[in-house]
Amino acid sequence: MNNIVLIGMPGSGKSTVGVLLAKALGYGFLDVDLVIQRQERALLQEILDTRGVDAFLDAEEKAVCSVQCHEHVVAPGGSAVCREKAALHLKSLGPVVYLKVPLEELQQRIQNLSTRGIAMKPGQTLADVMAYRAPLYDKYADLVIDCGGGQTLAQTAQQVLERLRKLDRQS
């Protein structure tokens, strides 16, 4: 596997699971949110507050499409699948793994919804965002990992590794 790409809702554990996977595989770890912040010279929430959701998605698409790496676990923002060009670029990097977490669990995990840098239009709820994005995550994922039921992030990382190895043997 050249790279592994983790997708999913904010709070699904992409960054933490990504670091655990990178350590287990001897890979690098790339958080695309940091690429956006560096390219835009602004924090994610600042971009959303000053430029709006569409401009944020444009900046995210540009950042995602700039990613070129080898032997990395890549964790894009949860909204990366909202732009087809970005989603297809992620698929070109390596297998895409959707960390699927139930809404109730996400709501418990995310305490800072208004300051976390989540691409949400005014008045939208986390449930609205999930309803829009879940079909996109399913569409672009090569592998779906159900992460509900109180599973630890370390257990999720182990499950991802096992499923990827199985997928790799089948191809």
What does this structure look like?
- The structure is a single chain.
- The chain is an alpha/beta fold.
- Helices cover 54% and strands 12% of the residues.
- The chain is built from eight helices and five strands.
- The chain has helices at residues 14-25, 32-40, 44-51, 53-66, 84-93, 103-109, 126-140, 153-170, and strands spanning 4-7, 28-31, 72-75, 96-100, 143-146.
- Helix 3 (44-51) packs across helix 4 (53-66) and helix 4 (53-66) packs parallel to helix 5.
- The radius of gyration is 15 Å and the shape is globular.
- It starts with a strand and ends with a helix.
Strand order, largest beta sheet = 2-3-1-4-5
- What is the straight-line distance between the termini? 11 Å
* Topology order in helix (H) and strand (E) letters: EHEHHHEHEHHEH
Name the helicity range.
40-55%
For the biggest sheet, the summary is:
5 strands, parallel
Cα-atom radius of gyration = 15 Å
Q: Give the helix/strand class.
A: alpha/beta
Average pLDDT rating: 93
What's the tally of helices?
Answer: 8
Contiguous uncertain segments of 5+ residues = none
Task: Throw out a few tags for this protein.
171 residues, alpha/beta, 5-stranded parallel sheet, 8 helices, globular
Provide a short characterization of the protein structure.
This protein has 171 residues and is α/β, with parallel strands linked by helices.
